[in-house]
Design goal:
The structure is a single chain. The protein is an alpha/beta fold. The protein has one domain: Protein-Tyrosine Phosphatase, Chain A. Helix content is 44%, strand content 12%. An 8-stranded mixed β-sheet has the order 1-2-8-3-7-6-5-4. The longest helix has 54 residues. It is globular, with a radius of gyration of 31 Å. One of its GO terms (molecular function) is protein tyrosine phosphatase activity. Pfam families: Y_phosphatase. InterPro entries: Prot-tyrosine_phosphatase-like, PTP_cat, Tyr_Pase_cat, Tyr_Pase_dom.
């Protein structure tokens, strides 16, 4: 009986050990299955994230552009008790301000006004007279005109302009004839083809025939229209009556394309033809957004009614901001000369030319933290001398 009891105990112990081994194997198997599931889940999540990143690239790109407009402008240092850090353009601004004492704006602009390119360099512009606005001096040159692909015509009154020490390509464009749907289509095709992240429209609504900008794009969020087969969808509308600069996020999609382009459209309604802006905050804000290239260096389209005056003035201001940020002392006369050689009639009045200088003074005063008495007096004297020649509704302090 004792022997049988001992043997039965041994059998029970063996069976217990065996069952424990089986349980350990089972738990290991379940653990490996869980790990495999986690890996596959992580892989799927990664794929999903990659897919989302790809599909949301253009939207995120637009958010970053809007962030630049909102956060990196002249007003970003405002606030009670806040201390200004040293501006990157501080030293260049001091040198530039000292030069204001001897600046002769009348003589400078007369020199610029004499820059005229021969009409035989604008043969394609002449051949497309029905697609241009009736201003015979506001033309594009054959050598740097924008060629529109896949439209009914390859023509638009637009020029590709490059300026030293400015990291973007600028398209200077005449406002398309909004009553001609083919012209509207070509305008948006140009923005799509050139992958423009920003479009600046400088005109007062009353200047534009038959409803103003409503024939160019919908003014309401989630509104859309078709320019022939070209889809123009307004995703977001931010209307700012105080600044007279409305902002729209617009999606562009040609027929047969699966990938759309998202751009931010800024409507500058504070600026009269052949004049200067009513106030400087809005154009400096826009110029700063153009000058900032840490987000991207994509092309920008700057559009005015005639196509060379106000848009080239805004571009010049953006170049001034960009050069200050690089520590370069800007030469406004040379910048305007460079643009005018590529786009006839650029900066088309002395009032505009004066306003570029005054906007630059406004920028220096707003951004510079190390102004000595000499610098303050230099800016003040210059503003007092030339502000009467501008069209500002509010004189700067």
């Amino acid at each position: 009986m004792k022997k049988n009891t001992r043997s039965s105990k041994k059998k029970e112990e063996k069976s217990r050990v065996g069952s424990k081994k089986v349980q350990k194997k089972a738990s290991k198997t379940q653990g490996s299955i869980k790990k495999t599931k986690k890996k596959s889940s992580a892989a799927n999540n990664t794929k999903s994230q990659m897919s989302n990143k790809t599909s949301n690239t253009s939207i995120e790109h637009t958010k970053q552009e809007t962030s630049v407009m909102n956060n990196n402008t002249v007003g970003s240092n405002k606030g009670k008790g806040s201390k200004k850090g040293k501006w990157a353009g501080e030293e260049a601004a001091k040198i530039w301000t000292r030069g204001l004492e001897t600046a002769n704006l009348t003589a400078e602009y007369e020199e610029i006004r004499k820059i005229v390119t021969p009409f035989d360099q604008s043969k394609i512009w002449q051949a497309n007279a029905t697609r241009n606005r009736p201003y015979p001096d506001y033309r594009c040159l054959d050598g740097n005109r924008i060629v529109v692909h896949l439209g009914k015509s390859d023509y638009i009154n637009a020029s590709r302009v490059t300026v030293p020490n400015f990291d973007r390509t600028a398209l200077l464009v005449q406002m398309p004839l909004v009553d001609q749907i083919d012209c509207v289509e070509n305008f948006w095709r140009m923005v799509f083809n050139e992958q423009c992240s920003q479009v600046h429209l400088i005109a007062q609504p009353k200047e534009i025939e038959g409803g103003g900008f409503t024939k160019l794009f919908s003014q309401e969020a989630n509104g859309y229209f078709y320019a022939n087969d070209f889809f123009v969808n307004t995703r977001k509308a931010d209307k700012n009556g105080e600044e007279k600069m409305d902002t729209y996020v617009i999606e562009l999609l040609p027929q047969g394309c699966s990938n759309s382009v998202i751009c931010t459209v800024y409507v500058h309604a504070y600026w009269k033809a052949q004049g200067g802006p009513e106030k400087f905050y809005a154009p400096i804000k826009a110029a700063t957004a153009m000058a900032k290239t840490d987000v991207d260096k994509s092309a920008i389209a700057i559009v005015s009614f005639r196509g060379s005056g106000r848009n080239s003035s805004l571009l010049t201001t953006a170049v001034v901001v960009s050069q200050f940020l690089k520590g370069i002392t800007p030469n406004i006369k040379d910048i305007v000369r460079t643009i005018r050689e590529q786009r006839p009639m650029a900066v088309d009045s002395r009032t505009q030319y004066n306003s570029i200088y005054l906007a630059s003074c406004w920028l220096v005063k707003a951004k510079s933290s190390g102004q000595n008495e000499e610098m303050k007096n230099g800016l003040k004297k210059f503003r007092e001398k030339f502000e009467g020649a501008s069209q500002m509704s509010q004189i700067t302090k």
